[in-house]
Write the structure tokens for this entry.
Amino acid sequence: MLDLLIQFLVNTGYYLADYRQLIMLFFGCVFVYLGTAKKYEPLLLVPIGFGILIGNVPFFKGFGIGIYEENSVLHYLYFGVTTGIYPSIVFLGLGAMTDFSSLLARPKLMLLGAAAQMGIFFTLLGALAAGFLPREAASIAIIGGADGPTSIFLTAKLAPELIGPIAIAAYSYMALIPIIQPPIMKLLTTREERLIRMPDPRDVSKKELIIFPVLALLLCCFLAPTALPLLGMLFLGNLLKECRVTDRLAKTAGTSLIDIATILLGMTVGASTQGDVFLTPKSVGIFCLGAVAFSIATASGIIFAKIMNFFIKEKINPLLGASGVSAVPGSAREVHLMGLKEDPTNFLLMHAMACNSSGVIGSAIGAGVLWSFMAK
């Protein structure tokens, strides 16, 4: 009996626990706390945080339990991450929920979404200088696009061993937008600039809204064909919404389907952060470079808006440049709140969403360009 009891105790997680797993369990609890108590992007942080807990419960190798063990349930669920299935489904749902009318009403705001992608390419150089391999550097750089699904998609293609730290870094900085972006916005703008009022956008016709996803797909994917898995799904979802004859499909894509994909994506990405795999010097470097990428992306959009104001008569509120990153709708909401602090009657949300939605497109194109170069 004593031998059986000892054997049972040896097989428990209490005996098998490693300090690295305990560290990751702590961070999993922090993610759950931030998502539930602080309400920082709860739809992302709660499944990711709980996934970290799942992935770091100690167990015997070879039982088909862990996410990296073939034939385990978690391994099969993780297949949707490594193949890019979950990110593509998320983009489908995102398209079904996105209203591009504010972007079509003021197309020049699209330039701010493009400018914010400078964070990607500056970080690429920084990661290469820090000693990362080209494929790893490209995967780290995409964090600057502030788009979790895009980061996961590109990393799965170029550096699958880094999916865990890159995904956690991308989603962490997306959740910390209320902390990261406001100081940068205040530093780079004057109060006079923050008070600039944007005119009401023009009405966009139904025909324009239907033509846009078709035309945008052709223009963007002819430029970067490797962005097709993401942008193809994004624009399909948007067409389902705008054509008004596929309401059932658009509703499913924008609710049930994207919710299922988000749960599985978040949980499996969290579970991939096993302590013995995740806690490495590379992970620390990725988190540092990710913060730089996100900050540069925010600053690039603001600075470009200020440059544009030198050449146009109708001035743009430079705060809108911060919403050029594709963290939808967090960065647009933060720009709107910053504008309201300066003037409670200055509503920037619709204009910020125009930049935000163009940032989604821009980051996907950026990922496609990096993939096409690094895959060779």
